[in-house]
Specification:
The protein starts with 7 loop residues before the first helix and ends with a helix. Strands 1-2-3 form a 3-stranded antiparallel β-sheet, with helices on one face. The chain has one domain. The protein has 6 helices and 3 strands; from the N terminus they run αααβββααα. The chain has helices at 8-14, 18-42, 50-75, 104-116, 121-152, 157-184; strands spanning 78-81, 86-89, 94-96. The protein is mainly α and 188 residues long.
Length: 188
């Protein structure tokens, strides 16, 4: 007796693997965007829009810095802040906010993910800007968290920056995507 060919769509539906398929699509899109961004930034220096990218990242970093300083100054004493995007703490630590702290990459990653992921454009037109605003707020809270670490445990800054606060962006992007898949997109 000949074996029947497996219909992948039927297999996925009958075994309720739609969620895993969607997560796989999320991971693939996110990784592809991440590596294309890194290649564009590191190898091509944002060509052909180098000046525009540095300008927008700089403006966004300044805004994230200003908002973070406002929050941090309500939580602890900052010895000094200045136009050079530094925060000076009473323990002698200094924290610098640079262009890569703008959150632009994560905002574009989210926007591209949502544009590429299936769903009605009518809903995407409000969900993408809302998600970008949430990612900006996440960035401000990330900088505030790093300022708290710098003020209290400066020797943990690199660990906190790389292994705690940077991944928070991806947790938020995943949560927003999950809300899209489970709540917004599913309500037709």
């Amino acid at each position: 007796m000949a074996a029947r060919p497996v219909n992948i769509k039927n297999f996925i539906t009958s075994h309720r693997l739609d969620v895993l398929r969607d997560v796989a699509i999320f991971i693939i899109i996110t990784l592809v965007i991440h590596f294309i961004w890194r290649l564009w930034a590191k190898q091509f220096n944002y060509a052909p829009i180098h000046d525009f990218m540095y300008s927008i990242m700089g403006a966004m970093a300044v805004e994230a810095y200003r908002e973070s300083v406002w929050v941090v100054s309500g939580l602890m004493d900052i010895v000094r802040v200045d136009d050079t995007m530094h925060m000076y703490f009473s323990n002698g630590s200094i924290m610098y906010i640079n262009n890569s702290c703008s959150g632009l990459k994560q905002m574009l990653q989210f926007a591209l993910l949502m544009m590429l992921f299936p769903g009605p454009w009518k809903k995407k037109l409000w969900f993408i800007p809302l998600g970008i605003a949430i990612i900006h707020l996440t960035n401000v809270l990330r900088i505030v968290g790093l300022a708290i670490v710098m003020n209290n445990w400066p020797w943990h800054f690199n660990f906190s920056h790389d292994l705690i606060f940077r991944p928070i962006f991806y947790v938020v992007i995943f949560a927003l995507w999950l809300i899209w898949v489970e709540r917004v997109h599913s309500r037709r």
